[in-house]
Amino acid sequence: MAATYPKKADTKQQKDMQAFLKLFSRLYPCWVCAKGFQAWMGHPSGRNEPMLGGRAEFGWWMCGAHNEVNRKLGKEEFDCRSWEERWRTGWKDGRCD
Question: Taking each helix axis from N to C terminus, what angle separates 31-41 and 55-72, rounded to the nearest 10 degrees?
Answer without folding.
Answer: 130
